[in-house]
Write a structure and sequence with these properties.
The protein is an alpha+beta fold. It is 13% helix and 27% strand.
Length: 391
């Protein structure tokens, strides 16, 4: 790994303004494949690496270099930014310092001789896929099913038959488009009556509670934590007993990319808002999260699809805190294009599985092994492909 890194902090301060305003030419650039080789050399290709040695990310930026070349527009440190964002900042460094900024790995892989533009400007970039709003729970029988907001903004419930879902999808609260504008939903017994409810962030950024009747229907729509739009900017939420008091809580990624915990009182109300894993913006780029006891220790964990399209596991300590961040199914970006995650024991083997809507709009099942990893990838709903489009 290279240990000589870039210009001094003072010089960076002198050049950063001109660099940030610079229109890079091909002579100042390198292809993504070349940057990948440099990253393999610098950090074994780990774009989120932070070994505590003062060098961060796939291209091993120091904090001063990352800040001096404008990296903080993306993330506080390089390891918290996406691969593309790190390369875009590295391009600015390359324009000023040349391949010598990476004195070992840059020349080794011809960084200064590439002259390709890594990310040519696309005048009409494709919009990011809309994240689906789905949850898993036992809403009407003894087996977990999946509920979700469909293209018509109605909450549909698909009951399960073992690891498969029964086609159809029944309305849980009419067919009047009540759920329009809801951003994320979570399922749990929030009022302590033994029946599964659904909570969600509505169009006004308030957390609403819809109570279940145990027969697949919902009612209500009360605020769980005031009506002041507290949940504005939250990307994804999940429910579970994270602090071990026997009551259902809600965790979510807030506008600053931190995981916040709001504890439930067992009567449908929430309080708190504590960080579950620091306040460094670690969850930046995560697309969806879900919760369950994935490693079989009796404590609630959180799994999520990270910025590199890998499924990560963060284990709970039973006291409202998380740790870890291990891959649950390799590090090959398998989850690219997935729009939702839900968790339940779909295979009825006592272990928590994960299901999600993939890029082809199919609900795919990955079975858990009870030790923190998953495998498989089978379609849960028979019939035509793409049945979950619009969810």
């Amino acid at each position: 790994m290279n240990r000589k890194r870039l210009l001094s902090t003072a010089l960076i301060g002198l050049v950063s303004c001109s660099v940030l305003c610079l229109n890079l030419t091909a002579a100042d650039a390198a292809s993504v494949s070349t940057w990948d080789k440099v990253a393999d050399c610098e950090s074994t290709g780990n774009w989120s690496i932070n070994n505590g040695n003062g060098f961060y990310g796939g291209l091993q930026f120091t904090s001063s270099t990352w800040k001096g070349f404008g990296g903080e527009i993306y993330a506080p440190r390089a390891d918290l930014a996406t691969k593309q964002q790190q390369i875009l900042i590295a391009e600015k460094v390359l324009a000023v310092q040349g391949q010598g900024a990476w004195p070992n790995c840059g020349p080794k892989y011809g960084l200064g001789n590439d002259h390709a533009t890594p990310y040519p400007t696309d005048p009409t970039p494709a919009p990011a896929p809309a994240m689906a709003r789905t949850v898993a729970g036992v809403f009407s029988d003894l087996s977990p099913g999946i509920a979700g907001i469909d293209a018509n903004n109605n909450m549909k419930y698909y009951i399960s038959d073992g690891p498969a879902l029964v086609p159809g999808g029944a309305d849980m609260l009419g067919s009047n488009g009540l759920w329009k504008g809801f951003k994320s939903i979570a399922a749990g017994d929030f009022n302590g009556d033994g029946k599964q409810d659904i909570a969600g962030i509505d169009a006004y950024d308030n957390m609403k509670l819809y109570t279940g009747d145990g027969a697949g229907h919902l009612g209500g729509g009360t605020n769980m934590l005031g009506s002041n739009g507290l949940w504005k900017g939250f990307k994804s939420i999940a429910a579970g007993d994270f602090n071990g008091d026997g009551k259902q809580d809600i965790a979510g990624i807030d506008a600053y990319d931190n995981m916040k915990l709001y504890t439930g009182d067992g009567a449908g109300q929430l309080g708190g808002g504590a960080n579950m894993l620091g306040s460094t913006g670690l969850w930046k780029g995560f697309k969806s999260i879900t919760s369950a006891d994935f490693n079989g220790d009796g404590k609630r964990d959180i799994a999520g699809i990270d910025a590199y399209d890998n499924l990560k596991l963060y284990t709970g300590d039973g006291a409202g805190q998380l740790g870890g961040g291990t891959n649950m199914l390799g590090s090959t970006g398998l989850w690219k294009g997935f729009r939702s995650l839900v968790a339940a024991d779909f295979s009825v083997d006592g272990k928590q599985d994960i299901a999600g809507i993939d890029a082809n709009n199919n609900m795919m099942l990955y079975v858990g092994n009870g030790a923190g990893t998953v495998s498989g990838g089978t379609n849960m709903l028979s019939g035509p492909s793409g049945a979950w489009a619009g969810f």
